[in-house]
Amino acid sequence: MDSQEIYDKVRGHYSAVSQRTSPEYGSTVAKSFGYSEKELAGISQEANLGLSCGNPLAIASICEGETVIDLGSGAGFDAFLASNKVGPSGKVIGVDMNKDMLAKSNKIKIETGKTNVEFVESGITDMAVIESGIAHCIISNCVINLVPAAEKTLVFKEMFRLLKPGGRLAISDIMAKKPLPEALRSDMAMYVGCISGASEAYEYQKFLEDAGFREILITDTKCDLNVYIQTNDDGSNKADYCIPPALGKAETEKDGEASSDYCTAGISSRAANCCAAENSYVSLTQGNLNDWVDLRKQSIAMRAATRHVQGLENELALRLM
Length: 321
Ligand SMILES: C[S@@+](CC[C@H](N)C(=O)[O-])C[C@H]1O[C@@H](n2cnc3c(N)ncnc32)[C@H](O)[C@@H]1O
Description:
Blueprint: H1 3-17, H2 23-32, H3 37-41, H4 57-60, E1 67-71, H5 77-86, E2 91-96, H6 99-112, E3 117-121, E4 135-141, H7 152-162, E5 163-173, H8 182-185, H9 188-192, H10 201-211, E6 213-220, H11 227-230, E7 242-243, H12 248-252, E8 264-265, H13 268-274, H14 289-292, H15 295-298, E9 301-307, H16 313-320
Parallel strand pairs: 1-2, 1-4, 2-3, 4-5
Antiparallel strand pairs: 5-9, 6-9, 7-8
Helix pairs in contact: 7-10
The chain binds S-adenosylmethionine.
S-adenosylmethionine is lined by residues 10, 14, 49, 51-52, 72-74, 77-78, 96-98, 101, 123-125, 141-143, 146-147, 194.
């Protein structure tokens, strides 16, 4: 897959997703990643399209008056939540490359009368439209995995450029614990769904370090990625949704567990069927997301990092905790 093809597919996919109108779905997904009912009630439901894969705000320690940049802001979900935290004296800038997402976030901004948030059209590999050194904090939720591998390093350099000295970074993203199988890597549906483009944890660490970040903290949140495929539009659970083992018995046998242990089905009488050998290419777009990227144990990693400045490390480390 070349970079242009990836960008085209990612744009097309998120343009379609921007038209989604199922707030209950978004709410169920967000709550599964730790957002509270109260937080969600503080923003327009339309901003939450159920695209998050963690909760960067939970580790961002955002204070009143701060400037926050949200990379890949989508319909403005975390940007609007952050705008509630920074208050009228602070500012939030959401960055997205997708015009339809930007149209949606700007519409919500106008409808809700928010004056401390703005949305900027830009790729996150080159945000020249934003001045250097203005942000206290950068957040991002399930976006960096969508950037073509060869360009990811640019994203981290840009984040470092945009942060004030001593600024901090709080990211939720999906990453792989081990190399992904080629069939999965080249699966475009899984790529735009934030799985196939996942970097391995050591690569992510290196991107951060090479860009100049220090005090890097990686947390396994052990979230269940199957929430996306197991949730109905009305937010209820697909009780009879069956998740077959993705890569066949040999691949899914771990620690002596049989592959059938990895099946998830709400109705046990159907479990036997769905757990029968499922090793087809088709299953790659429907199966157990946790198994494929070995994220059931690793789950979603959250990272916090600080822009390193001599003498400020301890203070910043404390704030991050
Ligand atoms: C999975 S969605 C997450 C949206 C939002 N962070 C949320 O949690 O609701 C990914 C978003 O990142 C945007 N995006 C993907 N790649 C991007 C890039 N290279 N530059 C800017 N935006 C990008 C997409 O347009 C989409 O809005």
